[in-house]
Amino acid sequence: METQYDAIGQSYERLKKQMPLARFPEGATFHRLATRPAGAAAAEVLDLACGTGWYSRALAHGGARAVHGVDISQEMVASARRTEHAEPRGIEFSVGDARSAGVLGEFDVVTAVWLLCYAETQADLTAMAATAYANLRDGGEYVGIEMNPAFDWSREPATKYGLTHRVLEDFDDGKRLEVTAHVEPEISFKAVFWSASPIVRAFLDAGFRSVEFTAPDLPEAAVAEFGAGFWAEFLANPTILGLRARK
Fold it and tell me: What's the whole-model pTM score?
């Protein structure tokens, strides 16, 4: 089944390399959430919505004992496998829908960056959360990066950080969007902005004991490259937040 993500294909890598939001707050927040406490055993990690394996590779580089990346896009997974073949890190990649992937193993951590924004309905959100839950050991964690559910749409858009969100439709729990990533060449795709309540409800309904949103990190390198003023709007109205849920 072809998806909108197949058309993006290798362009996904440009998002991570060129977009200020991805290069700095997204990457730093993911690193903090996914890093194991000092002294903890290396984790086995399932990376949902792995795309071309950008964060799967970061997890392996960071010392994960095993990493399995899953994405709905055959083209994305093919790209991830090509990179793994060229630079082996022991990562397994497979094609799968995060709503219905089933049990792929027993993992310490399930990660996802920009997963929930592709849920079209509350049932989709719950199904994604249920997949994460089913693949975690007791006491395991889901960690993700998502759109900030408290984003103030009346304030400045996030265009200078690399993304423009155009609202296509409002609904009770959020907005349907067309998102344009300002890289060369530009990439556009459809996504859904969810408020906090349906996200929390999905994870609790899936069985998680707790769900929390965490503020994004802004590393010193971001300020050094762009200046503190560049990031003022982001800090006042973050485009993204971290998400952590405990089984």
Answer: 0.94
Confidence tier at 13 by pLDDT (50, 70, 90):
confident
Contacts of 78 (CB under 8 A, 6+ apart): none
Lookup: tokens for 7 = 């058309």
Task: Determine the residue type at 91.
Answer: I
Distance CA 54, CA 60 (A): 10
176-233: per-residue pLDDT in tens? Answer: 999 999 988 888 899 999 999 999 999 999 999 999 999 999 999 999 999 999 999 9
Please report the beta strands in the chain, taking only residues with DSSP state E, as ranges in sequence order. Answer: 44-48, 66-71, 92-95, 107-113, 136-147, 163-171, 174-181, 187-194, 210-214, 240-246
Report the distance separating Cα 165 and Cα 154, nearest Å: 12
